[in-house]
Amino acid sequence: MTDTRFSRRAMLAGAATGLVTLAAPGLLRAQDDARRNASSFISQNWQDHFDRLGSGAIVCDTTSRALHYWNADATDYRVYPTSVPMTDDLTRTGYTSIVRKKVGPDWTPTPNMRAANPDLPAYMPPGPGNPLGTHAMYLTWPAYLIHGTHDTRKIGRKSSSGCIGLYNSKIEELFALTPVGMQVRII
Length: 187
Known about the structure:
- The chain is of the alpha/beta class.
- Helix content is 26%, strand content 26%.
- It contains three helices and ten strands, in the order H-E-E-E-E-E-H-E-E-E-E-H-E.
- The strands form two sheets. It has an eight-stranded mixed β-sheet, with helices on one face. It has a two-stranded parallel sheet with strand order 4-8.
C-alpha cells in the first residue's frame, strides 16, 4: 500500500522549489541587466582622446551614457551617469570645449524643438520647471550644453534634444571642478 500523506516539511520544500523555478527567469534577467549596466561604465583613458591634458578633459560617451572627467594632472578621475540625445540625428560628436558656465540657466527652445512640439514655451526662466536644471556649461557648438535636469528619470536614457544631462547634484559638483576652456570630446 502507498502512503499518500504529505508532511508539512515536504509541502514547504515543494513550494519553495516551485517559487525558485518561477522566479528564476526574473532573477537571471536582473543579473544580466546588472552585468550589462556595470560593463557599460568602463573606465576611459584621457590619452585615447586627447594629445595633452591641459586644464583637464571631459569625454561624454553617448553609447555608455557616461561622462568621464579628469583634472589637469589626472589625479582626479570621475565618472557620471548621463542622459544623451534621443536620436543619432540629434547627436553631435567630436571635439569642443566649455566656453561659458551659468548657475540658474534660462532656456530658449530652438526653432526645431518648437516645430516638433508647439506646446513648448518661447522662453523659460531659471527654476524647477526649467529643463536645464540648476547649472549649465555651454560648448563651442551653439545650443549644445552639459547641464543638469530636474527630471531624474532622464538620466541613463536617450532623452535629450542634443545635450548631455546630469543629475543636478552631479552637475553642481562637475561645474565647480571644470574651468572655462576645458576640452571636451563627445563620442
